[in-house]
Amino acid sequence: MNRDLVWRKSSLSGGQQNCVEVAQIGDSVAVRDSKDPDGPRLTFTRSVWLDFVAGLKGHA
Questions:
Q1: N or C, which terminus of the chain has less Cβ within 10 Å?
Q2: Residue 33: C-alpha distances to residues 12, 20, 36, 58, 59 (Å)
Q3: At CA 4, angle to CA 22 and CA 49, rounded to 5?
Q4: What pLDDT is recorded for position 14?
Q5: Which residue range or ranges hold the DUF397 domain (predicted)?
């Protein structure tokens, strides 16, 4: 895994460890489980990620 990535999680998580974290990789976004930082991760193009986030905001 790339240890140089800057992983972040939502400020709404309240410091919980049971959440997802995201990191930017060039023009892509990686997502991982905060409980398993060395485990698998999903990678999405920036446009797909922005569509996903917009969909979440539309259902809030």
A1: C
A2: 16, 5, 5, 24, 22
A3: 25
A4: 67
A5: 5-57
Six-digit token string for 42: 């999903």
Write out pLDDT tens, residues 2-57. Answer: 568 999 987 777 666 778 899 999 999 999 998 898 999 999 999 999 999 999 88
The Cα 42–Cα 21 span in angstroms is 11
Instruction: Check: CB of residue 3 under 8 Å from CB of residue 16.
Output: no
CA dihedral for 14, 56, 41, 22, sign (positive or negative): negative
Cα 27 to Cα 45: distance, rounded to the nearest angstrom: 7
